[in-house]
Amino acid sequence: MLFSLNLLGIVSVAYLVLGVFVTSKFYPGYSHSKQFMSELGASGSPTQQLSPIINNYPLALMFCAFGWSILLKSEEDFTEQLVGASIIIHGLATAFAGLFPMDRDPYTPKASLRGQIHGLAGMFVMISLIVAPCSVLFSGSYSIVFKVFSIVCVLLTLLFLALMIKAYKKRKLSGLFQRLCYGSQLVWLAGLSVRNEMLLTLINS
Questions:
Q1: pLDDT tens readout for residues 51-107
Q2: In terms of pTM, does the model score above 0.70?
Q3: How far apart are CA 133 and CA 34, in angstroms?
Q4: For labelling, which of 19, 51, 121, 196 has a CA lying 20 to 30 Å from the CA of 95?
Q5: What's 116's DSSP letter?
Q6: Spatial CA neighbour of 177 closest among 188, 161, 191
């Protein structure tokens, strides 16, 4: 069971890329470089109903299952518990982001209640995968190589986040920098998945 759950970390990354690509095909004129991923499920968008079904809900289940697999073997390791809990929170926030869509216009001066909840969920999506890689830096269970990898992913996340905010203000290439920002986090998640699966293979060999 743990074997398949460990792999969900990397499977979820591949699924997200495919899911966003497929969903965008049902949104006439959608631009991956100019529009946020959440705009696929925004209120009144052509793919409002389709996007959370294809993307948010399945991904939420995969993230939560992956986080749960880490908690199952965490024993009394606080760092492992924090990593697992953060990934579960990431999954739950992903589900909420799908359940409460953003406003059709991302530049609306006053977001609706659903839009505000979506924004709050998005904040937890982002922060949860900053907390998790930062946590491993204080654990003796992770190698120096993985810790350096984690630092690089976090720094890239923060860099692309700053560029995304700048692009949002200029209303230019917001989607591109959002994908690079979230992509940096997902690369770390995939790396953690591979690392955990390799450890499990070594233990069982």
A1: 999 999 999 999 999 999 999 888 778 999 999 999 999 999 999 999 999 999 999
A2: yes
A3: 28
A4: 196
A5: H
A6: 161
